[in-house]
Fold each of these.
Amino acid sequence: MKGVCGLLLWLMPMLALAGQDGASPADAPVVRCEADGSARQHCAMDVTRGVQLVRQLSTHSCIRETSWGVDERGVWVSRGCRAEFAAEAPAAAQRRVRRMVRCESKGGRTITCPVLLRGAPVRLIRQQSLLPCREGRTWGYGRNEIWVSRGCEGQFEVAAEDGSGFVDIPRQVTCESKSEMRRECGVSVERRVTLVKQLSNAACEEGRSWGWDRAGIWVDKGCRGEFSAD
């Protein structure tokens, strides 16, 4: 079953560092622009350096030049797109941005989320469902789509089309064993996982009450913690 949830977003949080003048994209004012129904809504903002979609707020697709765009006066949205936008930072202040897609399987059905991959690999950044997301079992990707099934809901990163790979920044994951039951928290792991902060009274001991493999992190015996996946 095809879904419209494969929304390609260009996200900036934690991925742009300050330039020589100390400015960063996070310093730029954020403009919220919301379309009610199919009508086009215009929002004034500085567009001289270009515009980035920072955060999508709607369930409707926000796709550049289809449901949002830029003109000389600001940004416009239509077709139910609601999102936050910010001016791009000067080139000296930028690092690569992470290309993200959200894809969700509701009711256990298999959902395909279309996205232009052009041969680029995909990895799971964050599992958002209680049911596990494991590559090859409950999620995967094909030529121009990501698919999820069996209740997997996640955020996925698409590697850069220029062959430079994924954004090499560790990802923070909270994984919690409730009622002392085992839980799997999906996240693609290239090198290692480390426990950053224990949130539970129950001890989090690697190999006993938590661990990891290439498909994610598991916790058990009441361990609740914040982890860094690298």
Amino acid sequence: MTESTSRAVRRGALVELEVGEDVRGSSRFNEDIAPTRLEARTWSRWNIAALWVGMAICVPTYTLGGVLTAYFGLSVGEALLTILLANIVVLVPLTLNAFPGTKFGIPFPVVLRSSFGIRGSNVPCLIRALVGCGWFGIQTMFGGLAIHLLLSAIFPPWRALDGVGEVIGFFLFGAMNLYVVIRGAESIKWLETLAAPLLLAVGIGLMVWAMPHVSIDELMSQPPSRPEGASVFGYFFAGLTAMVGFWATLSLNIPDFSRFAKSQKDQIVGQIIGLPLTMFFFAALGVVMTAASASLVGETVSDPVSLIGHIDSPVWVVIAMVLIIVATLSTNTAANIVSPTNDFQNIAPKLIDQTRGTLLTGLVGVLLMGYDLLQKAGLIDAGVTLESLYSNWLLGYSSLLGPIAGIMAVDYFLIKRQWLDVASLYQDGAAYPAYNPAGFIAFLVPVALTLFSLVAGVWTWFYDYGWFTGSALGAIVYYAASKLLMKPMAAVQPEGLVEEGAR
């Protein structure tokens, strides 16, 4: 029998909400974004680590070293060090913002209701969702190309379809992604846990294959592309900011996954094990494989899908493309679909459930890539490839999300002192306002300064180091605005919290 009033029960270090009719009947609640029950919090540190391995091993990671050397003026050694340091840095907001998800079992949109308001949370949610949908489209393009090359190797006449084959592959791969997410968190957990060791083994195999064809000493001694005599620090910190921005989105919606963790220790250790070294290794693999490609296939190729497509053996192409598909699937489902799905549900939980949110994510992703799909299908003739344009735009756009990361951390640890009234987060007019002005002020101030520095050409450092400046300023402004504008909430156990076993 369901109680009329919800109550929070502390079970060890975790808090579980026993949902009553007051929350269940609220327009801000549905079962898919409800607090995770304790029996469903089954992800160990190894599941969390596997999640990051599955997300980090993807085509964009493979190309990061080349991006830093070609566009940021870094040497190969400097580029790899930058990638390693960036992923150590990004562990800080990742682990901090994962805390409320793990402790209370709540997803990212519900966590945001504390700092932006019950309805105001939709603004940062939709900003995050748009980034996720864009990356979903880009990764699905890579997956669709892999499916096209796979079918071409199995059925040679398929190759004649050319761009149309890639479009068909895009929709096939997209459908695979959506199916996994619609199946739920356990399906994602299973996929990531299965894919992680396989992808690591393949990466090691590719490194062994490429090493005889490249001189590491020559590779590391190549001069950087920046002007001779220029200081490395400006180029290094610009590259560091861009690399931190690579996972800026996940540093926000990490509660979408940490809500399933067994404990805070599991989410912290799992992320430390899974993220920095995997990113470093696969970026290093991209540098080595690109350098070795001239010897392997007769020309320099920086895209792993295209590189494998140059292999003469159909058997190896089939095997490699299946692995590329698995790698991209494991990245896309977790990194680019889960968050938009939850974010869209936050708008109207009674109307949009997980299935509808997932389908809406797919639809927006297709629309964002529509121009490129029409171009590949030969329906329009244009020389602009939106994959590259979207990639550049999304990396810059992600840096604007820094303030939200700072706001979330300050709200939970300093303002709310690690206690949230979970039942009230699912109800209008309860303990939390519809719109929290402190959250919007703290978000808009750094974003306005970032755009001003970009347009006016002054304070260029504020834009160049946008994620760092934005997150720091957002955190400071939020703390000050909360103290000045908001009524203090009790920084103690929420009303109704009971110890396990209490009646």
Amino acid sequence: MDIGKNILAITTNLPEGVKLVAVSKTKPNEDILEAYNAGQRIFGENKVQDLTKKYEELPKDIEWHFIGHPQSNKVKYIAPFISLIHGVDSLKLLKIINKEGQKNERKIKCLLQFHIAEESTKFGLDIQEARDVLDSEEFKNFANVEIAGVMGMATYTDDETQIRNEFRMLYNIFTQLKNEYFSAADSFYEISMGMSDDYPIAVEEGSTMVRVGSKIFGARNY
């Protein structure tokens, strides 16, 4: 498994402006360093304990993304250093992130997660729930959270048309929210969609950020 070569193969084909998040969950530090030495700087983890350990041990110019669904009681451990939290789907969670951001005197960037897949196991808001959050007085008073865009996962299927339609749905949600709430905010620009199996379709449908694990590091270690 040539991690450096895999990264190059992906980044060479990504259009300008599309970021690669190397999903390093379950992977050892040496694999991450191999990717780092190939020029990769953004890595995604989904377990707080693993993430804080890797943050301590690895180069400090790595941009860490939390790509799982963060548990409320664990946000405090990643609040001091996290660059982006991908899976935010409630006002309650935003409130906690804001509180921890305040303690650390920093603004924490988040993506609102939308449920675009047919599988009920996936987390996420629908557009009306997102509007309810963004319209709430409580949200308007958050000074330590920055909504940087949207995130969603397509159904795990071979049906390319379905995947494309789901990504298109997320793109449309992004556009609606941009127009309704963030038209003056340059900070609202990310559309995080696409993983190892479907990221080329996601990019065609307007993704600005793809999360790729197995295509870089090989199968997951459990």
Amino acid sequence: MSIKENLNHIKNTFSSPDCLLIAVSKTKPVSAIKEAYDAGIRDFGENKVQEMAEKAPQLPDDIRWHMIGHLQRNKVKFISPFVYLIHGVDSLRLLEQINKEGQKADRVISCLLQIHIAKEETKFGLDEQELKEILLGDAIRKMDHIHIGGFMGMATYTEDTDTIREEFSYLRTLMDQFKLDSLPQQVNLKELSMGMSADYLIAQEEGSTMVRIGSAIFGARDTN
């Protein structure tokens, strides 16, 4: 099927019509992104700073670029002028760097805090204590160029749907708990970025507001 046909198929399976579809375009050529754009997609996810920075100028200005991969502090400056949402903030030091680069670019940069929900140790993310220290600590209250809009999580890579559901449910519950706290003005917990090609239906059932889908749209990942 074509990219447009894949997109129509995916949208028809959505159980939550308000859930945002982010087309994960990492390793894909500009021509494939343009095909998805012409089919109505405006949100694209990349996991490498250099790739995003190279693609963005070649494509329409109304594309919303999502940084979904692990972000190194020394790379923030390359996307800070234009990135729409950074999904994978997994440390206070990274958040401080994003705030610094946001100040230089004279804009508030929207972020999600990445929470470690999987049983796999290789996944990045904050634990509950680290999350608490960021959201309820003093440092974030001094940051005028970041906005925390919610959480992001990656489930265990498994065919065990009960495990996946449990992990997504945990993330939703965790966000609900933090909503009860007195949070700084830089924080407004609304978004749950969880779910990819293999588990986005479960993620939606567990409250996801945005899913990151690549291979189901563009086909198998290109290696380079």
